[in-house]
Design goal:
The protein has helices at 2-17, 21-30, 35-52, 58-78, 86-104, 109-118, 122-131, 133-142, 144-147, 160-177, 181-202, 205-231. With 232 residues, the chain is mainly alpha-helical. The protein has two domains: 2-118, no CATH class; 122-231, no CATH class. Helix 2 (21-30) crosses helix 3 (35-52), helix 3 (35-52) runs antiparallel to helix 4 (58-78) and helix 7 packs antiparallel against helix 12 (205-231). It starts with a helix and ends with a helix.
Length: 232
């Protein structure tokens, strides 16, 4: 486990802390001919070897940086095919972490994977999934009749309300599992403060009631989910 953690730390340092934005731009423009692509790979090799502090790992580190080079190169050439730049970014990071995992547990990869799968709390995973998109869809169906009567605010970011709801339900679920019920009250207060100016400016009782119902319903779903998880 320590080996994997050190490899991940080295990756975070090399990919984020020691990679200036001008390197990223230069790589995107010049791709395989970019000098910073090779400097970036070299930085990863040096940082990883420094953190491991054991020369016997040089073959392992070499395999990691070579794979890092080809993964980065693939991302540079596939970037134009994606409308959202975040998609190739997260795919790139996922592949890097997968390589680190395989290298760290190469001696017992199948056994370690089975061990991790056996440690998964499937009830918790189900609760987390439920309070995200399924709960958002359920709320949309329950509030469908009311939302038709509310004037849309075209200044809002697309889907912002849905994502805010998902994040707040995840926070509520986490606080319930940790037994910190008082923090939920602070979360409701904070949301009310942020919403106060919007409601005051709109001067719409319907909008106020709609947001209040939606907020209570969102928190209620997360609370019930948390209680069910704890009890069963």
């Amino acid at each position: 486990m320590i080996l994997f953690i050190k490899l991940v730390l080295a990756h975070l340092i090399g990919d984020f802390l020691l990679q200036p934005n001008r390197w990223v731009i230069h790589k995107e423009v010049n791709k395989v001919t970019s000098k910073y692509l090779y400097v970036h790979v070299l930085v990863h090799f040096v940082v990883t070897m420094f953190l491991l502090w054991d020369f016997q790992y040089w073959k392992l580190v070499l395999a990691i940086v070579i794979s890092h080079y080809f993964i980065d190169l693939a991302k540079l050439y596939t970037n134009p095919f994606f409308k959202l730049r975040s998609i190739p970014f997260f795919m790139d990071q996922a592949l890097h972490i997968l390589v680190l995992y395989i290298c760290a547990y190469s001696g017992n990869l199948i056994g370690q994977t089975i061990f991790l799968l056996e440690k998964i709390d499937w009830a918790l995973l189900t609760a987390i999934v439920f309070v995200s998109y399924p709960a958002a869809i359920i709320m949309g169906k329950l509030l469908e009749g009311m939302s038709d009567r509310i004037e849309l605010d075209h200044k809002s970011l697309p889907g912002a309300g849905k994502y805010i709801g998902i994040i707040e339900r995840l926070f509520v679920l986490a606080f319930i599992i940790l037994g910190r019920w008082e923090v939920i009250g602070l979360l409701i207060t904070a949301k009310s403060v942020f919403r106060f100016n919007d409601l005051k400016d709109s001067n719409s009782r319907k909008l106020t009631e709609y947001i209040l119902i939606g907020t209570l319903l969102s928190f209620g779903i997360a609370i019930v989910t948390g209680i069910i998880y704890i009890k069963f």
